[in-house]
Design brief:
It is a single chain. By secondary structure, this protein is an alpha+beta fold. It folds into three domains: 50-151, no CATH class; 155-199 and 417-555, no CATH class; 207-416, no CATH class. Helices cover 56% and strands 11% of the residues. The protein has helices at residues 12-49, 51-59, 64-100, 105-109, 116-141, 147-151, 162-196, 221-236, 285-289, 315-322, 394-404, 416-423, 425-459, 461-469, 474-506, 519-545, 549-554; strands at residues 207-212, 241-247, 261-263, 277-281, 293-296, 310-314, 331-334, 344-351, 366-370, 380-386, 410-415. Strands 3, 4, 5, 6, 7, 8 and 9 form a seven-stranded mixed β-sheet that branches. Helix 8 packs antiparallel against helix 11 (394-404). It is elongated, with a radius of gyration of 33 Å.
């Protein structure tokens, strides 16, 4: 029993999406950190270029605190402008991004409308990050003792001044965080691929489904059963239809109905869960869905409320209650029927296990009943197996329902492939967005690495010119720069790999078919990041090889 605040309402999607959305928020935070590290790098480069201006103002009597405040105000202006622009872009592109997600359910579940609370939070976060990541450059550029800075203006490519070492540290952090995000994106994407290739236990190809609920139109039980029967007969007579049946509980919708049972020959323990799942289905349901009948018989039109109760169970039910014994002919009683005249139900068939509610679920104990023997039948989900493209039959299905009763609304008309895809809504959302965040983070890290190495080459132009003048060839200069790129990248990878394993352990409950230390994912993420880092560092390295000694020595 769970008590919830009434103002929140009841939503299964909230519970289903809570953890994945928290993971996505964490990824957004990591992308923000990478972007802030890039901004800090740019501010440090700008501070380096303004050292003479700051030194002059300090010499003229300006206080360090005043200069720090001025530089922080500049950072806040940048942060405010960036935050405002980001909010404006998000409002403009939210609907476009929502429609770009590779599944239809997103447009129905997620709202692109702007939210004032979210906008204010984003703006406040922009200002806070502007202060935090602008503070170090501001303090660094206003050091009262400028002699060390002037001395460090000439050094080696692998060393450099304290601010430059800090900038390289920021690049290492960006590489590590990018690898962390790529590993997360790879784990979620691989998990989704495993789910999509999983056999659900039935054949969704060439099956189209729709729902009707005569109870909403005030039909009594007898009229409902008559409507269901007529719709089934009309659809079965259509060209291109192989078979048609129906189910009380639709497949792949995370829906379930369970009842407590007492099974013949089975002694339950105190507190034991004796509540298998139930589904009322029509004749031909198993053949229509492609669920193999392993023993016994299917339901027929002769199974009515006037005849003895019958049921078909799945392998998990039979194994749980009967072990290796044959379940055919055995009996059980639903506790809800104990007060009736003939409460027991005979098992007449055994079918293969299916993943009926969702692809993620463990195999459940399932009992299928003929809906014609039930007394609480409401709506029904019809399943039609076709010999043609199932989408082509959709207009005729709508027409048939209108012909039977124009007042009956037809809902949830879709193929089973679409239904299975929508059942993976959360997994696809997380995989798509985490992949986007991972690629964005990698791009930002590459930009940061490119900026640092370009700055290093520009600062060391004179040194490179001297090396070339003393006989260093282009390959030596190229390798000198790429060696620094490799050092920064490998340091980031060394930090990112154990962090990625920690992330995998954190989200392991959200994965399917792989572990938190999946070697393929780690190798692919590392390879992608190192290749991107090489490309980002190659352009500055190539520029370094084109330095002319005479021009460099004049600097």
């Amino acid at each position: 029993l769970e008590l919830l605040p009434g103002g929140r309402g009841i939503s299964g999607l909230r519970d289903q999406s809570k953890t994945p959305l928290l993971v996505l928020m964490g990824m957004v935070g990591l992308v923000l950190l990478i972007a802030c590290a890039n901004v800090a790098n740019l501010l440090l480069a700008r501070a380096s270029s303004r050292q003479k201006e700051v030194a002059l103002r300090l010499a003229l009597g300006a206080s360090r605190g005043r200069l720090v405040r001025q530089l922080l105000v500049e950072c806040l202006v940048l942060a405010l402008a960036g935050g405002t622009l980001g909010i404006a872009v998000s409002v403009w592109t939210a609907d476009l991004l929502l429609r770009a997600l590779p599944f239809e359910a997103a447009a129905r579940v997620l709202s692109p409308d702007p939210d004032l609370r979210v906008a204010l939070f984003a703006l406040a976060l922009s200002l806070a990050t502007g202060v935090v990541f602008g503070l170090v450059p501001a303090l660094q550029s206003t050091r009262p003792d400028l002699a060390p800075t002037l001395k460090n203006e000439s050094g080696t490519l692998l060393g450099g001044s304290a601010p430059f070492r800090f900038r390289k540290g920021l690049v290492v952090a960006q590489v590590a965080l990018s690898l962390l995000l790529l590993i997360g994106a790879g784990l979620f994407t691989r998990s989704l691929m495993n789910l999509r290739h999983l056999n659900p236990g039935f054949e969704p190809q060439h099956v189209i489904a729709f729902s009707v609920d005569p109870a909403l139109s005030g039909y009594d039980l007898e009229r409902r059963l008559a409507v269901f029967k007529r719709i089934q007969e009309e659809i079965a007579a259509e060209p291109g239809v192989r078979s048609v049946s129906m189910a009380d509980v639709p497949l792949m919708t995370n829906s379930d109905v369970s009842h407590t049972v007492s099974v013949e020959g089975y002694e339950g323990k105190d507190g034991e869960n004796l509540n298998p799942n139930f589904n009322g289905v029509g004749p031909g349901f198993f053949s229509t869905l492609g669920i193999p009948l392993l023993a016994g018989r299917d339901f027929t039109d002769a199974d009515t409320r006037a005849t003895h109760r019958v049921a078909v169970v799945n392998e998990t039910f039979a194994r749980y209650f009967f072990g290796d014994e044959d379940p055919i002919g055995r009996h059980f009683v639903e506790n809800r029927h104990k007060a009736t005249k003939n409460p027991d139900t005979e098992i007449v068939g055994l079918v293969k296990d299916t993943r009926a509610g969702s692809l993620r679920e463990d195999q459940r104990r399932f009992v299928y009943l003929p809906y014609t023997q039930e007394t609480d039948v409401g709506g029904m989900m019809f399943y039609t197996r076709t010999s043609i493209a199932p989408e082509a039959l959709a207009p005729r299905l709508r027409a048939i329902v209108r012909e039977v009763d124009a007042s009956l609304p037809l809902t949830s008309l879709k193929t089973m492939r679409v239904q299975i895809g929508e059942s993976l809504f959360v997994e696809r959302l997380v995989a798509a967005l985490s992949a986007a965040f991972g690629l964005l983070a990698t791009l930002l890290a590459a930009i940061g690495l490119y900026g640092v190495m370009s700055y290093a080459v520009a600062q060391r132009t004179r040194e490179i010119g001297i090396r070339v003048a003393l006989g260093a060839d282009r390959r030596t200069v190229l390798m000198m720069v790429l060696r620094e790129v490799a050092v920064l990248s490998l340091l980031g990878v060394a930090i990112g790999l154990p962090s990625g394993y920690g992330l995998g352990r954190l989200v392991e409950a959200q994965l399917f078919g792989l572990t938190a230390r999946d070697p393929f994912t780690f190798a692919a993420a590392t390879g992608t990041l190192l290749a991107t880092a090489f490309l980002a560092g190659y352009l500055p390295a190539l520029r370094a090889t084109r330095v002319q000694p005479m021009e460099a020595l004049r600097l």
